[in-house]
Write the structure tokens for this entry.
Amino acid sequence: MKIDVLSLFPDMFEGPLGDSILGKAKDKGALDIEITNFRDYSTNKHGNVDDYPFGGGAGMLLQAQPIFDALEATQNKAQESGLSKGRIILLDPAGKKFDQNEAEELAKEDHLTFICGHYEGYDERIKSLVTDEYSLGDFVLTGGELPAMVMIDATARLLDNVLGNDESAPGDSFSSGLLEYPQYTRPADFRGMKVPDVLTSGNHQKIEEWRQKESLRKTYKRRPDLIDYSKLTDLQKKLLAEVKIEEE
């Protein structure tokens, strides 16, 4: 299996992925792991990979361009080696919860790519690249590197010839109670994918209403168990009713 990892902190992976069972798997050729620093693909003269979110808000968002270009480079290299596109995985608190069943499904692939975020979050358009979004649970970490290591370990140990015969394996989205709304940063139009007009309108009331509605929409579609109707404001109840009609 080939595993590509896109990260701003490639040195974090050296120990965990180079020792023990995974280190032996790499030595045997059962596992090939390559870490790419997507800052190397920034077209900004200062090497910046983040920017302020449209519509305002705290923190910085990872820009689409460095990750798009880094992924295109790693995908081209993999395909030249005869590998498939495989699964492209985004580590995100709003993703589906990773478990053993998911590890077993990933272990069937010949190529996995992990995109590790940092800062406040991602430009939403990055998600157009991915096949899967995963979370380890209802908590927030400083970046996607640690979850990626956990998922790689859980998946790689299921590969043939990784464990010995005696060890063979058997076959800050939640802080508000809702999943976070989509976010975007510059440019406003990237490869034909445009930021919603409301976020560039300058109308802060409409921006806040859009964010609440999209937060409810994402939660309703992905984690409806998180919605406590009794704790919603009158506006949120109205917006949720609209979401339900729109999603029917």
